[in-house]
Amino acid sequence: MLYYYSEHKRARYVALMEDGLAAFTAVIQAALAVSGTYSERLHGLVNEHVSLLWRRPNLLRVVQRSQMAGDVPDLSWRERFQEPFGLLVAFFREASASGECAEFDPEMAALSLLALDTGFARFQEPCGPRFEAEQVAAHISRLLLAGFRRTA
């Protein structure tokens, strides 16, 4: 509804979404460019992505609403999201092939990461208590790396 009454408002809406996608891509590029084990890099990625979502709490709602309503189909969001998603898939493919991590489908791993991060950001307040970004990042990293299995 932000741009319903004015093209100027539509431009703001589009700019907000473009800025969010650029920030998301930058977070992924920066987090994956650091040295360290795949586990360390994954934790850094989750931490930075969750921090971005906490700093911009309404951005996720705007993007999700736009996707569901088809508000700005001319911007090809699906195609534009392929770059950051491709970076995640490549990271998980390398992690799986390295022997450091278990074998898994890299596309499913990338979607799992995004679903966990954005799910916490989107649904924690309506469904339960609000957690701090660092607490959520640590939980998601631990869950992705070890699951729920108790270690010996």
Count of alpha and pi helical runs: 6
Measured on Cα atoms, how large is the radius of gyration? 17 Å
Please give the number of β-strands. Answer: 0
Q: Which residues form runs of ≥5 with pLDDT under 50?
A: none
Helix content, binned percent: over 70%
H/E series: HHHHHH
What would the principal axes of the Cα set say about the shape?
Answer: globular
Estimate the strand proportion. under 5%
Structural class by sheet pairing and helices? mainly alpha
Average residue-wise pLDDT: 83
N-to-C terminal Cα separation, in Å?
Answer: 53 Å
Q: Tell me about the largest β-sheet.
A: none
Any key phrases for this structure?
152 residues; 6 helices; globular
Describe this entry's structure for a reader.
α1 (7-33) packs parallel to α4 (77-98), α2 runs parallel beside α5 and α2 packs antiparallel against α6. With 152 residues, the chain is mostly helical. Helix content is 76%, strand content 0%. It has 6 helices and no strands.
Summarize the structure.
This protein is mainly α. The chain is built from 6 helices and no strands. The radius of gyration is 17 Å and the shape is globular.
What order do the helices and strands come in, and which of them pair?
Layout: H1 7-33, H2 38-55, H3 57-69, H4 77-98, H5 106-127, H6 133-146
